[in-house]
Predict the structure of Glycylpeptide N-tetradecanoyltransferase.
Amino acid sequence: MADNDVTSSSPAANQNPNSDHTVDPNANDSETSIDSIAQQLQDGITLSKRHKFWESQPVGQFKDAGNPNLLEGPIEPPTPLSEVKQQPYNLPGPYEWITCDMDTKEMCSEVYSLLTNNYVEDDENMFRFNYSKDFLQWALRPPGYYRSWHIGVRVKLSKKLVAFVTGVPAKIRVKDTIVDMAEINFLCVHKKLRSKRLAPVMIKEVTRRVHLENIWQATYTAGVVLPTPISTCQYWHRSLNPKKLIDVGFSRLGSRMTMSRTIKLYKLPDSPITPGFRKMELRDVPAVTRLLRGYLKQFIVAPDFDEKDVEHWLLPKEDVVDSYLVESSETHAVTDFCSFYTLPSTVIGNQNYSILKAAYSYYNVSTKTPLLQLMNDALIEAKKKGYDVFNALNVMENEVFLKELKFGPGDGQLQYYLYNYRLNQTLRPSDLGLVLL
Ligand SMILES: CC(C)(COP(=O)(O)OP(=O)(O)OC[C@H]1O[C@@H](n2cnc3c(N)ncnc32)[C@H](O)[C@@H]1OP(=O)(O)O)[C@@H](O)C(=O)NCCC(=O)NCCS
């Protein structure tokens, strides 16, 4: 469910029209703006809305918010494995469960085409996420992954894949506790099968298969508000190719701006400016792991990465994940690190363009190089590689560079959730050290 989008369920997350292609310093803190009143009304409606499925699940419920008598930690204790339901949940007659073997080209292609045609779109249906096959294989096969957590639903007769949901294992630290979790992602039901309550069955089935591995907690993100977010984050967007972004309707020309002034505004140097800035290599895994582990300690919720995780998640993989570091010329110590992953969106129904190439900020650590300078170098690399836009959530310390580096706020929010784990406080985005794909 990590759709990396905003309340509008926007894969490309349109820039806030108010951002006007310059950065509006008040865009994020105008308590009295019409936007924020509208948001409060929306929240009110959402809060009063019934969630027949989610109210039956071990997740924080809206009615319990702020109740100091409820203990932090697991909401329900684990059950003995022998008591976990052994058979899959029932599907409507014409459909059957499959376990997707993401090692095979054929399966990858089927999943790719389901998602490419049916996964997250923005409110105006202008963009749809287009995760590449290589990306899907990377995202779904980290160290210790379970094939049984890659779940599809087919039409029995035609064998057509019509729904999908996945989990991958992750150690997530919540405050002082390291919890074995599933990261749930890629929940998708074919457009023709929507609103038939198939999603709750998908979620129950992935939960059952997670339980069978003796794992009882999960984390996920979504553009929609469900019971109950641990944090509400926002996407910000940094134009790299402003002309194309304007041409495809991703952003607008500011009222007092011309195209050439806009292009000039977003121009970047040709190459990174930090001495010792270079691509991460296999030999850097131990140093990057140390750096990242030290850095992530400060956040309330963050992954507990070991070297195997770092090798999988952060070693550069062409058109999937890019990582750079700063190596001191004197000591050869790795002092800083930045990374982004590649998630293009299909541009729906545009005559000139079919794809928007987007980079998404992933994990960044600065100890010697100022974060602002490090991220400027990341922008330069992304621009060199032909990305149209660089997106970043306001998690971790990202607020430090967003406005300064000419990111504009997106028009919605990304909610973070924990399953079967209660936190007695709502977290600020800057308390989160976790990025889901
Ligand atoms: C998300 C999606 C699978 C939901 O399916 P649907 O056919 O719209 O909804 P269903 O009738 O099957 O189920 C509705 C239930 O699923 C819940 N639900 C909807 N979206 C959800 C999400 N992203 N994560 C978790 N639960 C979700 C609803 O809240 C509702 O439960 P409730 O009554 O307790 O509130 C489907 O809309 C879809 O494929 N959308 C495009 C891809 C997408 O947005 N994926 C989610 C990324 S986070």
Q: What stands out?
A: DSSP finds ten helices and 17 strands in the chain. The first helix runs from residue 34 to 48.
